[in-house]
Amino acid sequence: MERIEKTVFISYRRTNFPWALAIFKDLTHYGYDVFFDFNGIASGDFERVIFENITARAHFLVLLTPSALERCGDPGDLFRREIEAALENQRNIIPVMLDGFDFGTPAVASQLTGALATLKHYNALRIPTDYFEEALDRLRKKFLSLPLAAVLHPASLTSQISATEQKTAAEAAPAVREEDLTAQQWFERGFAATDIDEQVRFFGEAIQLNRGDAMAFYNRGNAHRKKGDFEKALRDYSEAIRLKPDFVEAFANRGAVRHDQDDVEGALQDLNDAIRLKPDDLPALTNRGIARNDKGDLEGALNDYDEAIRLKPDSAVAFCNRASLRSNKGDIDGALPDCDEAIRLKPDFAGAFYCRANARRVKGDLEGALEDYGEAIRLKPDFAEAFGNRGIVRSAKGDLEGALKDYDEAVRLAPGDALALNNRASARQAKGDAKGALEDYSEAVRLGYKAGRQFAARALPYEG
User: Fold this and answer.
1) In this structure, what CATH number is given to the domain that contains residue 439?
2) What CATH number is attached to the domain comprising 68?
3) Is residue 123 part of a domain?
4) Taking CA atoms, which of 169, 274, 306, 423 is between 20 and 30 Å from 19?
5) What pLDDT is stored for residue 192 in this prediction?
């Protein structure tokens, strides 16, 4: 008769720590030998300890929430690799579906690629927060009481010692409060919500219950940023950093917001911190390149874009930004191939078409520029800069009517664009509309007309 194995590995995303700890404490209380990465393992031993403990345990619990699979599309994501190791070693895999998780949602399905696609075929346990204890009782009696024929591979002495250290620390931790689990519910609702106001409210509820949750502050900061409420976003990012001083994404996003507010020095300071903490952070490198470009440090910006491309040769954003920089330096022949590569990598990238249009305009290829501005506008109908620059090309070709239409649209989309106002004034003056020209010139001066900055495609912000 096969014996019942009572060895368990808990795989979880750090955002779901309270649920993982609560499950660990319950199983340990009932005599299970549970591996739980409680406070992090030294980086040099991390992967060996993790993977040896997967093969040394019969049962593999994978905690699933709307936020858990967020980065599983990346083959190098550790959470994904833990699941793949359990699949490869034929552990007794139990998907634990926590609040709001549904295999059928598009966001979840998009992450379940490769071997992970088989997860949805396993017998899963749903744990409603209101019936947490009842669900754990069912976990022990139904899912973990099966006789197994799995071949266990003893972990090395080093890995066993690390596992014991983590277990001792987790056992000594205070019991998980009901408020902590409820806070997790609110967090996951915020993560799954599509309405920005709901995101702000749900993450706010999570914060009220657990003011030490850096991820809740960070995600609410992202929601405030989407709403354009930059001051609140800055406060939330700053609190997330205070709670977690090595929070790379919070530094990177706070830097991006400071840049949006024209605080280039503050942006550079944050982005330098993000890169210090994680030298291969692609969004931070890309955004630091943008900030350096705006400050006039073109060589520093070029180094950042070169490094971003070295780290991720298929990054359309990095190629587009390097093209924009090369255009600013007058290297049009170097800019055009970068634009072509960005478009090849991402054919629906409006910013890349816009950048190539600018380079073609400088080269005197007005027809090519018109074609690219038109494609940028087709892909992004609210692209004010593309309308404004297409107006310049149409004006150069003598099409004042077409130019005025483009300038009108640019001003409608971006009423504070002094450059578009100044260009519309010139077109109106050429058409003999002296009154309209005077109004536009006056408004451009009031807004502080100066040569506008070149558009640079921004890296997408982190979302969790």
Assistant:
1) 1.25.40.10
2) 3.40.50
3) yes
4) 274
5) 85
Task: Give the whole-angstrom CA distance, residue 142 versus residue 95.
Answer: 14
DSSP 8-state class, residue 139: I
283 within some domain? no
Question: Under a CB-based contact definition with an 8 Å cutoff, are residues 461 and 225 in contact?
Answer: yes
Residue in the block written with tokens 């009932």: 30
Q: Is residue 119 part of a domain?
A: yes
Q: Which amino acid is at 54?
A: I
Q: Please state, in angstroms and rounded to a whole number, the distance separating the CA atoms of residues 258 and 236.
A: 13
Q: Which domain holds residue 366?
A: 319-464
Give the integer Cα–Cα distance in Å for 367 and 395.
13
pTM comes to 0.76
For tokens 């980065």, the residue is 71
pLDDT in tens, 387-432: 999 999 999 999 999 999 999 999 999 988 888 899 999 999 988 9
Kindly state the average pLDDT of the residues 433-460: 68
Domain count, the chain: 2
Question: Does position 455 have pLDDT exceeding 60, yes or no?
Answer: no
Residue 368: predicted pLDDT? 97
Q: Copy the structure tokens of residue 434.
A: 């002296």
Domain edge (last residue) among 156, 172, 188? 172
Span 211-232, average pLDDT: 95
Residue 34 pairs with which residues in a beta bridge?
A: 8
Decide: 54 and 89 in contact? Cβ < 8 Å: yes
Could you tell me the pLDDT band of residue 150, with boundaries at 50, 70 and 90? low
Q: Give the pLDDT score at 2.
A: 61
Angle at 177 between CA 171 and CA 181, to 5 degrees: 105
Q: Which amino acid is at 208?
A: Q
288 located within any domain: no
* Domain final residue pick, 172, 202, 236: 172
Amino acid code (one letter) for 174: P
Instruction: State residue 61 phi and psi, 5-degree precision.
Output: -95, 125
